[in-house]
Amino acid sequence: MEELAKLEEERGNPGYLPADRVARGDSKERAAGDGRGSVADGLGGAGEKKGKRERIASNEMCTFLILNISSLQLIPVNMIAYRQQYGSANPAGIIGPAIAATFVSTAVAVVYCKMKDRGRRA
């Protein structure tokens, strides 16, 4: 996430720029605007809370977070240990279904991210 925040800073996202760069007007949004400043510029309004600029997660940040949450798991070690502890005849029999289930959850997460990304751009 820190590296993605650095990427947002390089892109000129005002929420990730140091305060001195925002005050100078180095953000792309300010340069493209009419110069009055806006919430997106981090120069006041509803976007600022107690002196801090509002940060909005980028599409890449959201995708990274959702992929981590969906957690594709190749070998469910804990489940195998539990099954062995309770006397299962085949404790490793859970590996195939676990891979399939976590693959589906990760695929759904990727599709969801792409749909939301398209919605943001429209």
Provide structural commentary.
It contains 6 helices and 2 strands. It is mainly alpha-helical and 122 residues long. The protein starts with a helix and ends with a helix. The protein is elongated and about 60 Å long.
The overall pLDDT, averaged over residues, is 75
Helix and strand run: HHHEEHHH
By DSSP (H or I, 4+ residues per run), the number of helices equals: 6
Q: So what's the oligomer here? A: single chain
Rg over alpha carbons? 22 Å
Largest sheet: 2 strands, antiparallel
Q: Structural class, judged by helices and strands?
A: mainly alpha
Task: Tell me the β content.
Answer: under 5%
Distance N terminus to C terminus?
A: 25 Å
Q: Name the strands of the widest sheet in spatial order.
A: 1-2
Overall number of strands: 2
The percentage helix is 55-70%
Name the shape in a single word: elongated
Spans of at least 5 consecutive residues with low confidence: 27-47
SSE inventory with pairings:
Layout: H1 2-11, H2 19-24, H3 28-32, E1 48-49, E2 52-53, H4 59-70, H5 77-85, H6 95-121
Antiparallel strand pairs: 1-2
Q: What is this entry, summarized?
A:
By secondary structure, this protein is mainly α. The chain has helices at 2-11, 19-24, 28-32, 59-70, 77-85, 95-121, and strands at 48-49, 52-53.
Label this structure with key terms.
single chain; 122 residues; mainly alpha; two-stranded antiparallel ribbon; 6 helices; 2 strands; 57% helix
